[in-house]
Structures are given as C-alpha cells and as structure tokens.
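Q: Structure tokens for this one, please.
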Amino acid sequence: MTNAFEKQSHQGGSIWGQPVAPAAVESRPVLHVVSTRDYASAGTVLDDLSNAINTGTTNPPIGGLFKRAMDLIIAGTALILAAPVMIVICLLIKIVTGGPAVFSHSRVGFGGKPFNCYKFRSMIANSDEALKTYLDANPNARKEWEETHKIRNDPRVTFFGRLLRKSSLDELPQLINILRGDMSCVGPRPIVKDELSRYGDHQAEYLRTRPGLTGLWQVSGRSSLDYDNRVALDSHYVRNWSAWLDVMILLRTIVAVMRVDRAS
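A: Here is the predicted structure, written as tokens:
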C-alpha cells in the first residue's frame, strides 16, 4: 500500500495528511428507511472476519469515556445551533423535490454493528434505477464506481442536493447519530458492508472505533485519493489516535467546509 501521508505544518504543530481536494459524493442511498433485510444482512458483517478481529473489537472504542464526552458536548451544542438551519433545509427539500427530507443507509459501526446513518436527501427518489441505467450506459463510470463506490458528477444528485453537498450541510443529521452513540465527531468514514472486505488486514482497526462525521479522509484529499489511501488514512487515525489529533482534524474540517469549492 502506498504512503498516504505527507507532513504538513499547522499553527506551529504538525499533522499528517494531504492537501485538500474536491470531495467525493455519497454512496447509494436508501430513502428514509433501511429495509429490514438490508439491516439484518449488515449484522452478519463479522461472520467472515478472523478471530483476531472479533477479539479486538470486544474492547471499548478508542478514546473511551473521554472521547465520548467530547462527542456529546460538541454534537449537542452543534445540533442546538444548527436546528433552525436544519428545519429550513427540511422544508426546502419537501417543497423542491417532495418526498422525505432525510434518508438513512445501513453502515458498519464499532465492532461490526450496523446502524442507520442519516443524511439530508440530495438524490432523486428513484436513485437505484437511475444508477443502474447510468452505469450500464457508461463503462468508465462503472469502473469508477467499482473502484471507489463513488461517481464524479453523479446524475442522481439534484440541483438543491449539490448545493447541500457543496456546503456539507447534507451531513448535519449525523449529529443525531453521534448523540445516539452510532458515530463520533471524528473517526474513519462510515462504510457499507460490502466495503469492509476492501480493508483487508486493516479491518480490525476500522472496527476498533466509531465512524466519524469527519476524519483524516475528509481533510486530506477525499476524491483525489484512491481506495488504498483511504484505508491507510483510517488505519493511521486509529493507530495514532489522541485528543489533540481530534482537535486538529475538527479545526481543519471547519476550514474545509468554509472552502465551498473544496466540498463535496
């Protein structure tokens, strides 16, 4: 695996990462509610893993109670401050596109436990069919999807959805995931069940912590990185976690979100 990191200076200290690049788009959504079958299948995600991985996930998530307390304080405060904006976004989605304002999609959480990851809906209602039609007609896009689970200029994304992604406002509902204990403010990016096998020997590291609303991937290149480098970033974060690293990532996230041209 290639080295995903270069050392950068940041306010007198240093942090590992790559220059910020245009962000990637979200993977295939299931509108509003995850099907019972999909949720149950995600629960079997550990069945194919080694005993070492299963043993490694019996410990508490990295950071323990301290990291969890940080999550509750930050997410709770952010949710209160963002509540008016979230209400307006919900109304606009209902008016502009109709249908539910929030969708949920099954992702792999700490220890392999599945959870419903929330986002504001930024795609058309028939996104599954639209994706299949688009990939059938565009071999290059199919290759990109198979390699990264993402597509540049995704045809499923609505105009208002692109605005939400540019501002990263589509991810605000994940503050609820953090309060529920499904996610953390900082951590590996949430992945779907089928992606876990691509982590190879790093599966245990991914399963040692809660996925994050933001993380090294979000502030270190995103769509400019290949999948191996994404895995390397997640692995690096888990192996080198500290409260200071979380603070640095959060600060860099604020800067990245303000740079709308660099958002997803």
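A few notes: Strands lie at 6-10, 13-17, 102-108, 114-120, 184-186, 212-214. Residues 64-96 form the longest helix (33 residues).
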